[in-house]
Amino acid sequence: KIRKRGGKTFTKMKQREEILNQFILDTLSNEDSKNLQIVTKQDISELVKKIENYGIAHLSIDPDFKYVKDPVDLFIVLDDIDLSQSQIGTIKNLLSQKIIIFTRPKDGIKESNMIKLGFQVELEDSSNKLLCFSYNLKTYNNKRSWNNSEGWANPENFDKYRW
């Protein structure tokens, strides 16, 4: 028996919510995050109950980006919140080095903007209309063996070569 909820099937909404929640919980188990910020207007009480088991010292949930002021280890924005590029830049530069942003797949414009900002597609589920981007400063620009001070100024070659 499928019950209707706001014109959509309850089971489809529940499945989408479970995928979203499991992705967040998997991220928490893989990252060493003690402070967590979630921006959403949705009721996420079930997710909060599960988050309690992950050693989060401080969890803040706000219904709008304008209320967020403090830096955190992990910043999550759910798909009911639309952010501008400027707001995403503020999150990256001032509020967190690890960011997860959920959106609903649209026409590709938002996806290209997110990739331009350094985000990667982490989860794409078109049947549940779920798209997730992530940004982690620690893995964004990996250290390269050739990009260091060794080898750039070779004192042993100073008298051998002239440019």
Task: Explain what the structure shows.
This protein is of the alpha/beta class and 163 residues long. It has helices spanning 10-30, 45-51, 85-95, 109-116, 137-140; strands spanning 4-5, 8-9, 35-39, 58-62, 74-77, 98-103, 120-125, 130-136. The protein is built from five helices and eight strands; from the N terminus they run ββαβαββαβαββα. It has a six-stranded mixed sheet, sandwiched between helices. The chain has a two-stranded antiparallel ribbon with strand order 1-2.
- β-strand number: 8
In sequence order, what are the helices and strands, one letter per element? EEHEHEEHEHEEH
Oligomeric state of the chains present here: single chain
Q: Return residue spans where pLDDT drops below 50 for at least 5 consecutive residues.
A: 1-7
3D shape: elongated
Please outline the major beta sheet: 6 strands, mixed
Nearest-integer average pLDDT: 80
Structural class: alpha/beta
Q: Helix amount, in percent?
A: 25-40%
- The helix tally amounts to 5
Strand arrangement within the widest β-sheet reads: 4-3-5-6-8-7
Distance between the termini: 80 Å
**What proportion of the residues form beta strands (DSSP E)?**
15-25%
In brief:
The chain has five helices and eight strands. It is α/β, with parallel strands linked by helices.
Features:
about 160 residues, 8 strands, alpha/beta, disordered N terminus
What's the layout of helices and strands?
Layout: E1 4-5, E2 8-9, H1 10-30, E3 35-39, H2 45-51, E4 58-62, E5 74-77, H3 85-95, E6 98-103, H4 109-116, E7 120-125, E8 130-136, H5 137-140
Parallel strand pairs: 3-4, 3-5, 5-6
Antiparallel strand pairs: 1-2, 6-8, 7-8
